[in-house]
Amino acid sequence: MQRKPSVYLMSAMAITIAVIAPLCLPFNIATEILIFGIFALATYLLLSVAGLYSFGQAAFFGIGGYVAGYVYINTDLPLIAGLVLAAVGSALIAMVVGMMSIKRTGIYFMMLTFAFNQMIYYLAYSWHSVTGGEDGLGGIRRPDLTIPGLGTIDFSSHLNFYILTAVMFVAIFACLYQLIRSPLGLVLNAARQNPHRTASLGFSVYRAQLLAFVIAGAASGVAGALFAMLYRIMPIDAISWTSSGTAVFMVIIGGMSSIFGPVIGAAIFIWLQGFFSLIWARWPLLFGVFIILVVLFLKGGAMELFDRMRRLVEARLQRSAR
Amino acid sequence: MISLLVAQLLNGLAIGMIYALTAFGLSIIKGLLNVPNFAHGAFYALGAYVCFSALQLGMPFALALLLSFVVPALLGAVVEKLGVAQLMNGPYLYQLLFLFGIALILEQLIIIIWGTVGLSAMPPEWLQGAFDLGFTWIPKYLVFNGVMAALIIATVWVLIERTRLGSQIRAGIDKREMAQCLGLDVSRLITAGFALGSGLAGMSGGLVLPLLGANSTMGAEMLSIAFVVLVIGGLGSLYGALAAGILVGVIQSVSSVFVPSASTVLIYVAMVATLMIRPQGLFGER
Fold first, then answer.
1. What is the pTM of this model?
2. Residue A128's closest chain B neighbor by CA?
3. I want to staple B201 with a disulfide (CB 3.0 to 4.6 A). Which of A127, B44, B222, B255 is the partner?
4. Using the 8-state DSSP alphabet, how is residue A156 labeled?
5. What are the residue ranges spanned by the domains of chain B?
6. Rounded CA separation B191/B176 (Å)
7. What is the pLDDT of residues A25-45, one digit of tens each?
8. pLDDT tens digits, residue range A129-164?
9. Which overall architecture, per CATH, does domain B2-277 show?
10. B87 and A295 in contact by Cβ < 8 A?
């Protein structure tokens, strides 16, 4: 097997992305891309590494957003506490959902994650006093961060909030990449290809997959918390099943062959959404058409497109060398 | 209190029949394709809106109901032929996303054509009014709705269990490769099954129109209910959806007497409870 590039190299590339993004895009778009980049990375861990086709990831994104939002509105807890609580809350719910779903494989697993997503959606919808119900949870503050000896960072500025998001993005990216290279990642990979053989080698497939599900839930929760702070509101739509479908689509559209795929997928999706939602209220229709075109004609996503272009260029170079 | 409970019970039975019908369609498609149809809710909504427009044009109710079956069925056949069938050889994730895309497009098209405001329709004259049961009233249309759904289910049962096409569809569900080896044109069977399933979803929408009206969120709501029904009924069984559908309808309806705001959440609680006691679903095989 080909040796994977070191985590330092990959992190350096992730940092480069985080530095370049706000130079070419408005701050809020760049911030949104990195937030959904985290969400897509978590989904990538499940879909491409563990082979768990979850269609309910928006539930954990949403829980993170609601927990952080509730904490920042109703308490004076610091920034870190909100993020940690969001991650822990999402991870706990992910553990419960995972325990009930993972033993069922394939389509059954997928339908269960979908159903749990809807269950959590309706809970959020009817628990008006905590979640704001249909109107969403508004008025979420962005707490300052006080670092002893360095001073206080005010996150109401777009730049500072972007830096916070970028730091979280790079950290989660590095952690997930390291996880994929770790023994746990190898077991997940093996279980995706052949769960029975992996189990008979003595690995607990269930425990490895549950752990991956919980980790993906926690990362999605952090993304949700950042999203709630970005526009200072947690809309109910963010927790709906279409949002879960979007997360899966971001992974596919970017390409499953590399960990940069989901990040590129998130960038494409957010950019498209920002562009089309301005010109047409019914833009999800175009999104639907786009999904169908990608699924039919570009299964490998953007990564496949790069690959095809590289091969084309190489072929041309070889011909000219001859 | 008793009369209210009985009324809600009857109501739940009628709505449950609709759930059963829709989930039955989903069950056929899932059985044949081994893919859950994410566009199923959109086909259900489409049926309701087609029925509405047909009534608006002055067509008799029976014809409007028929159209609410035919239009989604034809559309389902096209979707299957042009999209799902092309993706047969890859991982099913792509079929899922394809159907997700179709659901988004249909949902938006419905809003473009019929708007976001909820629509309602009256039942035909001979079905207006109510039967007097002595202690409570039961709307005539509610009875018609239940009887009609039962008739459709019975018809489909005869089609699947007692006809040549039906036995071929069952063969396709049980052992696709073997059916193919025996010379059956499985790809055509799948198209037929997809059309049938989508048509059943559409017809449920048409049937339910005089009861619940039509609105832009009905598709998404029904999609999740149909999934829950399938999980409770057990994925391996074609008919588990029927019993589970009625069960879910009754739970939702009766619980709305006691906890109106949580009646939707309660059906998920029922799902979780089923999974904990019988992970394979009520009628599923391990």
1. 0.88
2. B261
3. B44
4. T
5. 2-277
6. 14
7. 888 889 999 999 999 999 999
8. 888 888 888 888 888 787 777 778 888 888 888 989
9. Orthogonal Bundle (1.10)
10. yes
